[in-house]
Every structure is written in structure tokens, then in C-alpha cells.
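Recap quiz, item 2
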Amino acid sequence: MSQTANSKIYAAIEGGGTKFLVGIFNANRELLAKKTLKTQSPAETLGACTRFIQEDSRRFGKLTALGIAHFGPLNTLPSSPDYGKLGRTPKPGWSHFDLLGFVKEALGTQLPIRIETDVNGAVLAEYAWGAGQGINNLLYLTIGTGIGGGALVNGALLHGYAHTEMGHIALPRLPDDDFEGVCPAHGDCFEGLCTGPAIAARWGMPATQLPDEHPAWQLEASYIAKALRNYAYTLAPERIILGGGVMDRRFLFPMIRAAFIDEMAGYGEPSVDLDKYIVPSGFKGDAGLYGAFKLALEA
Amino acid sequence: MSQTANSKIYAAIEGGGTKFLVGIFNANRELLAKKTLKTQSPAETLGACTRFIQEDSRRFGKLTALGIAHFGPLNTLPSSPDYGKLGRTPKPGWSHFDLLGFVKEALGTQLPIRIETDVNGAVLAEYAWGAGQGINNLLYLTIGTGIGGGALVNGALLHGYAHTEMGHIALPRLPDDDFEGVCPAHGDCFEGLCTGPAIAARWGMPATQLPDEHPAWQLEASYIAKALRNYAYTLAPERIILGGGVMDRRFLFPMIRAAFIDEMAGYGEPSVDLDKYIVPSGFKGDAGLYGAFKLALEA
């Protein structure tokens, strides 16, 4: 069957710690079908994803490629024998799961597949169609169930010995804050202090239930600003996009910008309007899904 | 006068906060002449550099190009109207100095010149000929009068809204350490805690006079390891090269490697021998000069 560009069909999976999104796109970036799944065991969750793809893509045509933007740690180096496998993670059942192998088994070994971290997918989507268009040195940070960053440098994904693990940087503690943090490895790293689960553990109630006036949010903004300072001095990104569930509290943005200015203390700060420097995602919570679609286009 | 490749003559200036190095190279990377100068006012120091270049290069042939690897903050974007000008710096007399303008005035506007930060020059030299050959994701860090980092990502210099300012990241303080730090902007950032001048201010004597057994060095190694953790999680460099005067104390390397392993806590660390991961410069204190030569070759 020959296909014109517009009839090509792509599948996209965004794998997150709380939920998975799976979508079917055409080449015009139209989302033809979408499903949201609660994250359970790898076999249950990915089994449901691949069944959805098999059943729903058939309605639209033959599948051209699949992109997966998935939480880490994850081997994203195609040259590695462990490409597409997860690393050690505190999520029960997910450590060392062979994501690529499972998906190939379900969908066939001929299907072109590209796998990246969720945040690397997101930064690609923001660069292509979202809040980072034309910004060659771009940082996307998610603050939700976990914290992670994806960066473009000179227009290409930053990859080194592995994908980055930006959530695990060490930060100075705020005075009188003795919360021990929730990171199983580091305790009070940025991720240990500032994820949704960290907020819940610190204040004894789910982050979603904390009112806007709660002091939790100023603390949160202060720590986020310290982290952004470190990323700014280390990566000099031309724009920083903040996504993830915590950042749905939009009132955090001006608080973070004000604290960021204090952190930089007039030294080496970006000479642009901060309203255009620290910005929300250009997608309504599905930057990762569009990122997975971008990966499918490039697979 | 026609020149074969081998007869081409290049000048190189490494501008540091304590001293300047100026060298004349041929295309075979032979250092034909070299001079070391104490850093004084811009006009005195750079005047002496350009006089040396004019007088000494003449002995070897016509100058082909000049490379400058200079302390920042410095505008290194050729497209900017401020290209080659320094930013605000605590060094008396150097703020906003027009480095490129001064050198062009002295050596002629026809001479091809490329200007970068000292650490960006150094990382280019380490990549070409030093301790980072073939390592496409490479970090060079200098710890001396100041602290700065130069990174290659995908084999190219990391540049964003400006050059990086890696010395100014925020770090957690060690227990019972209440030294206020010497950074004029931030106080106790990495640079404020760990440069040569910071060590001198903390312990009341020049760093060079502290004996190897002094507790200063364990403290120094612990803070450096925290910084390396943050760079590792943010940049995932495949190798980290440490240069600068403080790192002449070679016994710091094993102390830093041990503390780095503790900092990473088994999460997302590079899966290589740390003896080959955190390494000294491949140059004997003049990585920046060779970096300036590399810049001249590319000018």
C-alpha cells in the first residue's frame, strides 16, 4: 500500500510516573485518537498502550512509526545493547524493564521506534511547535511526580554519558527548613524537596489540596529559583520552560521569576524580559505526548 | 610573501586574573616564544602582550591570526555589537574594557582574531590535544583565582544566552561551615567558597602555604565533589578535566573522586572508572594558552 505524506499514521506514548498517554497522529500533527491510563505494572500499562495502538491505528491506516517519551532512568543510546531498557527506579516492578523489547514483541520488529526520556521528548515538542520555537538553547523542566530536565544545545538534544538527571542536583537548604526530603538516593536533592510527593510528605496533604495562599508555595518557588540559577549558570539556556503538575499552579511563575532575580544577584543573568524567559509549556499538559509524536516522525 | 601551511605563524593570549600568557606558535603547534606577565591594568597588560606579539612574531614571519582565551564575563558572540568587550567584573579597571578594540588598535584591523573565555579555550585544547581527545561531551573546570567551566556538547562549545558561569552555582553548605564566602555577588556560591582567594580568606594564609595535611583540603574536595555532582546531573559529561592553580595539589584528585561517589549515592553515575572520569589537565598549566592557539587556528 503506498501512502502519501498526509496519510501516514504515527503512534506516540508518553510514559509518566502517574499516568500514561497514548495517541495516534497523522502527519499534519492532528491527534486522531488519545487514551489516558493510570500507571500500573509495566506489562499492564504498556500492554494497554500497545493494544490501543493496534486497535485504533488500524482505523486510520498502516502505522508508520512509534515514538516513546518515557520516564527515566532509561537507556536512550541506540548503539548500546541496553537501548530501550529502564535503569534502577524506585517504582515497583519497573526497574530494568525492557521497554523497547516489550513494544517490539507487541507491535512487530519492523516498526521504526524511537525512545527518549519524557523531558527530552517534551523539549523537542516545545522547540518544534510549543513555547520554545526557534530557541536553539532551550531547557524544559518538569516538576510533578518527579523532576527532570531536557535541554537543547545548539539546537540538538543534550546527551552525555547518559540522559541528564537534572532533578538530582544538590541545593542549599532554606533557613529553618529541616524536611529530610523524599529522594531514595539523596534525600534532600531538588527532586527530594520539590516534587508533588515531596510537597505532600512535607505538609501532610496532597499538593492539589493545598490552597493558593499556603506557605508551601513560596518555599516551592524559592527552591525552584535556586535550581534555575544553577541551570542558568551551567547551561545558559535562552529560555526555560516549566511543565509538570506542580506548575499547573500558574501563580508560581511570578514568584519563581522574582526569586530567580534575587538568586542571580545581578551577575550573569539573561538580559531579557523574565516573563519571556521563564515560561509555561506551550501544550496543555501533553508536551510529552507531542514529544513522542516528534520522536515518531524522526524514527 | 606566500606562506606554506607550516610557515604560518599564530599568536595566542591567555588572560587570567593573576597572570597573562602570550605565545607565538607555528602551524605544527610548536611554541616558538612565550612570555608570562602579571595581570595589571588592561592597558599595561594587553599593551605588553601586543608589543611582545609585534616584536617576536616578526622574527618568525607574518602573523596569520590571533586567538584570545580570556577571563569573563566577556561577550563572545561575534554577532553582538559588544563582541570582545568585558562585562562587569570586580577586577579594578577591567569592567567593560574593550578587549577586541584594544587589540585591533594595536595589531591592525586586518588580523583575524577569535576571542573566547579562558575555560572555553581550554576545553577546545584538551579536546584537540590534551586529556579529552575524542570525548564529544567534555567538561573543563578551572579552580584557581576564579572558578569557571567550559563544556563541549556533541563536540561543539556550549553557548547559550552568554558563556556559562559555572563557578556561580549554589551549593549546600557543609555542617558547621559558616565561612561567608568571597563572591561579591553571591557570597557563598561555589566560587565564593573554593577559589584560591577563598581558601586564603577562610584559613588566613595563602593557599600555596597550606600544608598537604591541612583540613582545608578535605573541605575543598567535598565542595568540589558537590559541584561536580551538579554538573554531572545537568550536563552528563563523559569526562571532567580539572585545571587551575588549586588543582596543582594532585592529592586532591582521589579525595574528590571518593567524595563524588558519595554525592551520587549510586544514582545515575557514569559507569566508567573514576580515575579516567575526573582527570587532570593534559597541559602543564597552559591549557588556556593552547586553547588560545586553537582559537587562532579557527579565527
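The mean pLDDT of chain B is 95.
The helical segments of chain B are 42-60, 99-107, 118-129, 190-194, 196-203, 216-235, 252-264, 287-298.
End of item.
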